[in-house]
Amino acid sequence: MDELGASRWKRVVLKLSGQAFSDASGSSIDGDIVSQLASEIIDARRNLHVDVAVVVGGGNIWRGMTGAGAGMDRAQSDYMGMLATVINALALQDALERLDQPTRVQTAIQMAQVAEPYIRRRAIRHLERGRVVILAGGLGNPFFTTDTPAALRAAEIDADAILKGTHSGIDGVYTADPRIDADATKIDELTYMDVLNRGLKVMDPTSITFCMDHQLPIVVFDVLEPGNIRRVLVGTEGIGTLVR
Ligand code: UDP
């Protein structure tokens, strides 16, 4: 890894959207990408001594709105989305453990044969013991996305920051969509109110409000650029957008 230094934060929640697990060909889970993410998480854990809890999304497999848009019952479709996050969680667990990193998956919807139920105190204990904790199943409630559990769990486990990984080659928050508008410029730092008032695509508004109330900083960055998790942790200049 090229960036030296100590992490700015001792404990973080890394929000990985499901799309980050998939490749350009559209296959839902790309093993090479998941291994790359796993090795970066391990670098943070072992070399920077950061407690890492990962909240995984499921959009590479299913999103509630996909079904709702096609006429399905929204809550039913959201439960399918929550189950999709568990599939991604198990893929990430496998990749981490193949690299000898102890992990635990905890789910908000109980499925005792494959994972522990989410228990806050137990999650904290695992982190203290150097395990990577993967939190799946969202909140366990429909009508949310995984941004809200990322924020809620971060507050619960006393995390110092949320690292929101983007996956479309966009390395932070821009004044406009840089894929469409050539004049779009990257914003280095924003307040929660800026995000809400300007309708910027950082995380769902519910989760932004929650982070504001609980003073949880968010860094939006390109998680698929190798080395970026470390760069965000050590605070390398020019990486991502900080919301606080
Ligand atoms: N979901 C939900 N409640 C939650 C978290 C997720 O109902 O607390 C459902 C919702 O349908 C969502 C899907 O799970 O679309 C997958 O999560 P998300 O869209 O956040 O995945 P990502 O975009 O991060 O891949």
- The tally of strands reads 11
What do we call the CATH topology?
Carbamate kinase
Which hetero compounds are present in the coordinates?
uridine-5'-diphosphate
Strand order of the largest sheet: 4-3-5-2-1-6-10-11-9
SSE-based structural type:
alpha/beta
CATH H-tier superfamily = Acetylglutamate kinase-like
Rg of Cα set: 17 Å
Task: Give an overview in words.
- The chain is α/β, with parallel strands linked by helices and 244 residues long.
- The protein has a single domain, classed as 3-Layer(aba) Sandwich (Carbamate kinase), CATH 3.40.1160.
- The protein has eight helices and eleven strands.
- Strands 4-3-5-2-1-6-10-11-9 form a nine-stranded mixed beta sheet, with helices on both faces. The chain has a two-stranded antiparallel ribbon with strand order 7-8.
- Helix 1 packs across helix 3 and helix 1 runs parallel beside helix 8.
- It is globular, with a radius of gyration of 17 Å.
- The model has no long low-confidence stretch (mean pLDDT 95).
- The site of uridine-5'-diphosphate has 22 residues, from helix 3 and helix 5.
